[in-house]
Specification:
Low-confidence stretches of chain A: 1-14
Structural class of chain A: alpha+beta
Helix content of chain B: 55-70%
Radius of gyration of chain A: 25 Å
Shape of chain B: globular
Distance between the termini of chain A: 14 Å
Mean pLDDT of chain A: 87
Largest interface: A-B, 74 and 78 residues
Radius of gyration of chain B: 24 Å
Number of strands of chain B: 0
Shape of chain A: elongated
Number of helices of chain A: 7
Strand order of the largest sheet of chain A: 2-3-1-4
Helix content of chain A: 40-55%
CATH architecture of chain B: Up-down Bundle
Order of helices and strands of chain A: HHEHEHHHEHE
Largest sheet of chain A: 4 strands, antiparallel
CATH topology of chain B: Formate dehydrogenase/DMSO reductase fold
CATH superfamily of chain B: Formate dehydrogenase/DMSO reductase domain
Number of domains of chain B: 1
Strand content of chain B: under 5%
Largest sheet of chain B: none
Oligomer: heterodimer
CATH class of chain B: Mainly Alpha
Number of helices of chain B: 15
Distance between the termini of chain B: 14 Å
């Protein structure tokens, strides 16, 4: 089993051992085509709480799954503007106001000389926002996940593709969803319990 | 699949593909040996999970010894003071700044591969970007060491940063040296984030492959619970694209700012507008030489020849040739400008470089940086690992000497003959230079031994099977573009 299980054996075992609860149905696929088809089938059947897990990003899968674009670029723009204003503020205030120091008669607010620092701060804040914004939106780190306990799911980082339909989906019905997934030619459809 | 039947590219009499051959209409395969997704995973994770080889152990002992040497010399330097270096008037910058510029430059090839080639959709970057990025991180660490101790009292190095303090003083933002602090520290941070973010899916692969509990725990924590969710991949790819777009102007700015340390001064030989582009081209040139120096032995030792193919090496040597020509052109321009300026101090410095007291350094630089890369015009040399490795070694040496020539010769001969001098490095200088290679190689060897040395997830995306419509039953998605990779059928 995976790390997360071994690092937290008690919390899982004590709380859930008596009554393993169905959390999702997972269908395993061998190639990109059938995975994409399965995603389309679920989308067309009106499912929304399903996900496709793959060892690499499948291009165009967001369209097949009906996903909306992420707001991450706007967050990064905000981060970049923060860095820009912060950079202008830092250089302008320290050199022009708080610590005026005359060097070769140059003006205190020598803005051309501040450009490199302002630029670097813009980049730094944008990059930090891009990384931590991405992790936040993805709710990572998330070291406990029932998926990671499933034995066949280990191959998701290798060469297998999984479509996971959560029980929280309004359309979810164990028998009906199972039948729908089975029709998309998976390697197997299995129950995921937690 | 049925229409893809060209036979060129197969080496006659074998089932092996020569992917350095180009065909119009088809992309040459970037993964050879008939590998499937699982084979790629195996090849890369085996490096981390198989027992250590002797070649790795011996290299590690050598690197660790040099690192120990660095530790000892640093201890001596800090207790005795920077007087133990060869730095003297008029050469007050000496080896530490030569080494700093050399190491920062090395890093640039890693960012070029990971960011700029990503924006240009150069798919061949995927096999080499991971360890080129690692190279960047470790090179920047080596670079940061030198200015850190060059300040003389390293325990006060935090004065470089704008931290409110009891002296009520701020660092001077009008100084290029402070721009450098911001440029290099931003570069180090962004490179580290870029490297780590790209590595998360591959760390998850190592987590899922690990047999031992400590390995599962460590890789499990590092991979943050990655499950390969498409919703995650979507944001991940967006973040990666944004980071690439941010790192591209950043990397160009870093060596430009480093060159401002010189160009903004008034010293003949330094005070020139050509420095920013010239430094950036030189950095990429020297960095690619270092990537090849690392890639050629690594692909052999770890059996990565089907992932880091001859085409990858050849492409890198082409970049090296192109940037080498830019560097050569910059050398010529410097001489032309000295002559054209009619500025006799400037003219004197440029006569002094080839014919003066340090002419041996200048001619070493010309031999290594101008003459050696010319061999790369010939395909036979580009596709032979031995010649490629030799050329790369020449360039590594040459790029160090370029910085030596710029910094040392200009300072040795400034305006007043009465203040001229000759720089002589001490044993501490030499040991610190050697020791910095120890730091670099120790970290690098640890990474290629225990980390995901090739970006598996990214390599899989450039394989033909990664595209819908190319696998079995591929006729079902008429709106998907067919993969234009020419599939490697050597396994069939």
């Amino acid at each position: 089993m995976t790390t997360e299980v071994e690092t937290r054996p008690h919390s899982v075992a004590v709380a859930e051992a008596d009554d393993p609860r169905l959390v999702a149905l997972i269908a395993e696929y061998k190639d990109v085509d059938s995975t994409v088809l399965a995603a389309r089938t679920l989308r067309d059947a009106g499912y929304t709480c399903f996900d496709v897990h793959s060892p690499f990003p499948i291009h165009g899968i967001d369209r097949h799954m009906g996903l909306k674009p992420t707001i991450l670029p706007w967050l990064v723009l905000g981060g970049g503007l923060t860095g820009l204003v912060g950079g202008i503020g830092l250089t302008g205030w320290t050199m022009g106001v708080d610590y005026q120091f005359l060097i070769s008669g140059k003006p205190f607010f020598s803005w051309p000389a501040f450009i490199p620092v302002i630029f670097e701060m813009t980049i730094l804040f944008s990059a930090l926002t891009a990384v931590f914004g991405m992790l936040l939106l993805n709710r990572l780190p998330m070291l406990y996940n029932p998926l990671l306990k499933h034995p066949s799911f280990r191959r998701v980082t290798d060469d297998r593709f999984f479509v996971v339909v959560g029980t929280e989906d309004e359309k979810f019905d164990e028998v009906e969803t199972h039948r729908l997934l089975q029709a998309t030619h998976p390697v197997a459809v299995e129950r995921l319990e937690d | 699949m049925s229409t893809v039947t060209p036979n060129y590219g197969y080496i006659p009499g074998t089932r092996e593909i020569d992917n350095t051959v180009d065909h119009p209409g088809h992309r040459a395969p970037l993964v050879l040996g008939g590998k499937k997704f699982a084979d790629v995973t195996d090849t890369v994770t085996n490096v981390a999970f198989r027992p250590t080889t002797w070649a790795w152990r011996i290299s590690f002992v050598v690197a660790l010894s040099l690192l120990g040497l660095l530790g000892l010399t640093l201890g001596y330097l800090i207790t005795a003071g920077v007087g133990v270096w060869g730095n003297q008037q008029p050469v007050s910058w000496g080896f530490p700044i030569v080494n700093f510029v050399f190491w920062v430059g090395i890093g640039h090839a890693g960012t070029l591969i990971s960011a700029i080639l990503f924006l240009f959709r150069q798919n061949w970057r995927t096999s080499i970007n991971r360890f080129a990025e690692a190279m960047t991180i470790f090179a920047v660490m080596c670079a940061g060491l030198f200015p850190g101790v060059h300040v003389g009292r390293p325990w006060l190095a935090y004065w470089l940063f704008p931290i409110p303090n009891q002296m009520d003083m701020w660092p001077q933002f009008r100084s290029p040296l402070l721009w450098d602090v911001f440029a290099v520290s931003t570069y180090a941070t962004v490179s580290l984030l870029f490297w780590y973010v790209g590595m998360i899916p591959d760390l998850a692969t190592l987590r899922d492959r690990a047999k031992s509990v400590p390995a599962q725990i460590i890789y499990g924590i590092l991979s943050l619970g990655w499950t390969g969710s498409s919703r995650h991949w979507m944001r991940f790819e967006k973040a990666y694209l944004l980071l690439a777009a941010l790192a591209t102007p950043l990397v160009l700015s870093v060596h430009s700012v480093v060159s401002f340390d010189f160009a903004v001064s008034q010293l003949p030989g330094w005070h020139t507008t050509i420095f920013p582009p010239y430094f950036v081209a030189g950095a990429v040139f020297g960095g690619f030489a270092m990537v090849l120096t690392l890639a050629i032995p690594a692909r052999r030792l770890f059996g990565l020849k089907d992932l880091i193919t001859m085409r990858h090496l050849e492409n890198m040597s082409k970049v090296m040739l192109a940037t080498g020509l830019i560097v050569s052109y910059a050398y010529v321009t410097e001489f032309f400008m000295a002559w054209y300026s009619k500025h006799h101090y400037e003219q004197f410095v440029f006569m002094d470089r080839p014919f003066g007291v340090s002419s041996w350094a200048f001619w070493t630089m010309i031999t290594c940086n101008v003459i050696a890369p010319q061999f790369l015009w010939v395909k036979r040399f580009r596709t032979n690992v031995i010649t490629l490795f030799i050329v790369a070694m020449f360039i590594n040496v040459g790029m160090w000497f370029e910085r030596f020539v710029i910094i040392i010769t200009s300072l040795q001969r400034d305006f007043l003959p009465s203040s001229w001098g000759v720089f002589v490095p001490t044993w501490v200088d030499i040991c610190m230079l050697a020791g910095s290679f120890g730091l670099f190689f120790t970290l690098f060897l640890l990474f290629i031994r225990f980390g995901p040395v090739v970006a598996m997830a990214e390599v899989k995306t450039v394989m033909p099977e990664a595209h819908a419509h190319s696998g079995p039953g591929g006729t079902s998605l008429p709106d998907e573009k067919k993969s234009d990779y020419w599939p490697d059928e050597s396994a069939k």
